[in-house]
Amino acid sequence: MVKDLVQVAVDNYNGVVVGEYSASEANEVLRKAMIELNGGSATFDFRAVRDGKCNGLFALVEKILTKTVLEGLPENNPLMRFVEDMHVKHGDQISFTIEGTGNFVVSEIAEGTQALRRQRMFGGEDITIKTKVFGVQIYEELARVLAGRVDFNKFIDQVAATFMKQITEDMYKAVVGGFNGLAAPHVDGGVFDEDKLAMLIEQVETDTGKTAIILGSKQAVRKIKGITAADANSAKEDLYAMGYYGRFGENPIIVMKNGRKAGTASQFVLDNDLYIIASDDKFVKFVTEGDALVIPGNPLDNQDLSQEFTTIQKYGIKAVMCEANGLYKLA
Description:
By secondary structure, this protein is an alpha+beta fold. The protein is 34% helix and 28% strand. It has helices at residues 2-13, 23-37, 46-50, 55-70, 141-146, 152-179, 194-208, 218-221, 233-242, and strands at residues 83-88, 94-99, 102-108, 116-121, 124-129, 132-139, 187-190, 212-216, 247-248, 251-255, 273-278, 284-296, 308-322, 326-330. Strand 9 and strand 10 form a beta hairpin.
């Protein structure tokens, strides 16, 4: 039963027709099943939560969140095309094999540090990703689902938005930390100069044999100006529609949506830097461990006996940077 309900929830969330059910009917099927797992009640009785009588309900929600939120990373995030992601069972570790020769820099963001480790590669190496626990607290939302006041997809969206914001910021931190460890001649800086960017691109393409892509925040890519022959209609259309050039010659320019540094109101994760990488390089390694875990709070801790739920998940991120990549630190 639980397996079937999880599939109904996943299909409905992804917009897939669930048998003969419409989206609203699928939500109602899930709601009724959750009520049954909640002892037949459409509300939370803090005594039942206290005495562990709702465990079946939380187990169902955990499995659904794992399948929808953490195994369905947002493909609309431009950085995701450079992410290699895997899911492992609780207690397992995953290793990524790095092949070839050259200097590599690894940023261990999951360990809470941007310290860089450098070594020369003469064959291959297995990079192990360590995970840490991350969580989000949701106030009464699961109770609203049971009461029919909000559909389950909106509940998932709220959890997903919170987790994805944190995961995206951690990925960007890994990217920044990895690129900052690169060395000359693949690093340049100063006021934007077309020839400097062209040289970095040529270095990356010569080293990799692949077409390079330019990544940066919106504030960074808007500094790409004065491109030769950029008065073409297509270039003007890019500037009108997006506010920046979409290409530098044959090389695509991709904007990464910025995020704020934790605990700050004005500092961004991404600075005024341009990152030049090979087109198919999956240099960000992302691992989730085990299923999501939903932990109900104790209503007795709140004067109004309101219910809180904490959803936690273990994940780890590393950026494995080859010095064939380029960094342009713009003034």
